[in-house]
Structure formats: C-alpha cells, structure tokens
C-alpha cells in the first residue's frame, strides 16, 4: 500500500472508478462459483480473462460498471435525479443480460411513471424488506464521492440515487456511508478516520450498517461473505481497505470467495482504488478494461466538479 501523502487526488479519483471496473471484470469470471470450484478451475484466479456464466469478453463491464458509468455521466452532464433516471433507462433499453430483479422492477416502474423518486419505494412496498436489501445500488455509488465535496449534498444525493431502485434503509444508509468513506479517503485521510467519519453520520443509524462499518480487519477472508446482501458487501469493502497489503492481493482474495464476486469486487475495488490510487492497479488489468479510457476521463471531470 502506497504512503497516503504520496498519492495525488487525481490518482485517487481515477483509482476509484477504475477500481470498480477492475474488481467487476475480475470477479465476473467466477460469479456464482464457490471457492472450491474456483480453486479447481483456476488455482488462484488473478487475471481478467472473461467468460463466466454470462460469457463476458475479457474486461467487459457488467451491470456494476455500466451503472457506475450511468451515474458518472449524469454528474458530468449536470446532476439531477431525473438525469440519473434517464441514464438508467438508456442502459435498460440495451437489454442488459445481468440486470438484478430489484433494479429491473424499479426501472420498469420508472419507465411507466417517469418519476425516479417513486420507483424504488414502490418496489420496496411490493417485494418487502426481506428481498429489497441487495447490493445493486451500492455498486454504483462511487461517482457521488468524486463529484461532491460538500458533505450534506454528498449524503443527500447518495441517498436519493440509491432509492431510485433500492429504497430499503439498509441500502440507502450503506450508500451514504460508502460514499463518505470514499470522500474522506479522496481528501487524503487514513482508513481509520474514514471509517470513523462514516460511523459518525447521524443519518446512518441502522445497526446492521453500523456493524458492517466496524468489521474487524483481522477477520479471516474465509469468514467474509460475498453474497448479494448489501450489508455483507459493505462489510467486505470495509474489511478490504483495512488490510495492509497491496490492492491486487486483497481484491484477488475477495474475488476468489466467489458467489456475487463481480459486485463484491466492484464495491471493494472502488474503495481500494481511492485508498491506493490508480497506479496501484495492475497494468495487466487496466489494459483489459473496456471502460478504462472513459473512466479516467470521467474521474477527472467529476473531480473538477468536486
């Protein structure tokens, strides 16, 4: 891990978006697999090779990178929640192969009503809290941290963007906390201070979210859950940035846990990227990323807004 004072804000911002894309593309190959199956097929899966259940091209973005790009583009064009919704619907119109159930239902509602403020709460009411707390909004939350320096604006926009599809309080608060961690790291503070800042947010009062923010760094990776539950995904990312090892080693450890490996990789990769900067991401990964050029450009654009 590079000394924090040596990493520029530009490098951190680029690392944030490219970390999302790298974790996404690395994990896509082993999504839905278990650790034993991954070990039998790949040994230690550490390269972006594509394939997987959806037969991805090497470096192709899944919904994690696609929707992160959608949010980032909305900021670059001039933020409004309506513009975010427009970009979500434009993505939906391409017929994505891996759209999550909660997201699909919310965007169908949005397409019918044109109101991004009502689509997520409507779905939450229909499917219930037991099914509504997936990680589908956390995976796309990073652009807000790069675009907004003012804490109040940052928290409000993180919450409302989550609620377009994922209005459950656990999802909303996880996004607010995640964006806060990223913003504090972007400013050059250390991981301990970033986690303390997230815990101190008054709006983050859900006990599960707060417990995830206190995930112990000494937890064995075998005990880190990489399923689709938003609390587990937040905990995995918190665990990741507390590891005193290079970005590559930590991200590979998580992705080799399998299950929802692409989204876990994207969420943790984003925070690792803002912690360590884009220069910490292996060149052999960066060279494969289809979003590489656009994410570098968008990171610079969002940082200018910041």
TrEMBL record:
Q: Mind listing the UniProt keywords for this protein, alphabetically?
A: Hydrolase
The UniProt entry, under InterPro entries, shows: ADP-ribosylglycohydrolase, Ribosyl_crysJ1, Ribosyl_crysJ1_sf
Q: Is Nuclease given among the entry's keywords?
A: no
Alphabetical list of Pfam families matching this protein:
ADP_ribosyl_GH
What top-level branch of life does the organism fall under? Bacteria
> Which Gene3D superfamilies does this one have?
ADP-ribosylation/Crystallin J1
Q: Does the keyword Disulfide bond apply?
A: no
Return the PANTHER family for the record.
ADP-RIBOSYLGLYCOHYDROLASE, ADP-RIBOSYLHYDROLASE ARH3
Which family does the UniProt entry place this protein in?
Belongs to the ADP-ribosylglycohydrolase family.
Q: Under which name does UniProt file this protein?
A: ADP-ribosylglycohydrolase family protein
Q: In which organism is this protein found?
A: Amycolatopsis samaneae
Classification lineage:
Bacteria, Bacillati, Actinomycetota, Actinomycetes, Pseudonocardiales
